Amino acid sequence: MTYVFKTEGLTKRFSGFTAVNDVSIEIPEGGVRTIIGPNGAGKTTFFNLLSGALPPSEGRIFFRDRDVTTLEPYQRARLGIARSFQITNIFGRLSVAENVRLAVQAVSDGKANFFLPLKNARAVGAATDRVLNDIGLWPARNTRAENLSHGDQRRLEIGLVLASDPPVLLLDEPLAGMSPTETHETVALIQRISPDRTIMLVEHDIDVVMAISTTITVFQTGAVLASGTPEEIRADERVQRAYLGELA
Questions:
Q1: Tens-digit pLDDT profile for residues 81-108
Q2: 152-187 pLDDT, tens per residue?
Q3: What pTM value is reported for the model?
Q4: Among 29, 45, 146, 204, who pairs with 92 as Cys (CB 3.0-4.6 Å)?
Q5: Helix 121-134 × helix 150-162 angle, to 10°
Q6: How far apart are CA 131 and CA 178, in angstroms?
Q7: Domain ranges within the chain, ordered by starting residue
Q8: How many other C-beta atoms can be found within 10 angstroms of the C-beta atom of residue 75?
Q9: Residue 96: partners with Cβ closer than 8 Å, 6 or more residues away
């Protein structure tokens, strides 16, 4: 099985604190690959290292056999690595469609500016409509983004990431703060966009993790505690002890 990411001795220190500690792991291509662990386990830092938001203190990162350890985030994005964050980052005063169009235009023309002439306006419009349909926000396309519910804002943010049609998508706690209905709708979105992509999640909702994950990697104190299928993780005694029996 081919891998989408491989790390060798990946380590990140902050003023003497080791957030990620000598992690060597392969993330297989395709499917929903979820990272779980208690707060402070190093999950988001690991994501930041993969996406280039942080440089490692030691170790190397490979993306599909290419060493990307020293590449900037924009260079990794050009390779097909897209990333969303814990904090929603949208243009609140623009409509839903305008938000998506700007993201699509930035990918298409390299410039996110409504006042610049578009060389391929029809293609940008078609791609915008595709994303709006993918994320289920076509009916709300003319709504100002700031007036969306929290769940819809999170889905819009995923839509902005989808604008480049990336083969690899890193989603950091996409379900945080959602109601049960919003959680259900966002899980359905993740399942809709997962075919032909590798989706990596950091997530705390264990029920969701067990239901949608192809594989699960458990972090504890900056290191990998266990990795395997949901069934393997559920049966792992080390994971059961770490989560006080929550997965049993």
A1: 998 765 567 899 999 999 999 988 887 6
A2: 999 999 999 888 889 999 999 999 889 999 999 999
A3: 0.87
A4: 146
A5: 140
A6: 21
A7: 1-80+167-248, 88-165
A8: 12
A9: 132, 137, 140, 141, 142, 143, 144, 145, 148, 156
Count of all residues that appear for the chain in the document? 248
Residue that has been written with the tokens 């915008």 in this structure: 128
What are the tokens at 116? 């610049």
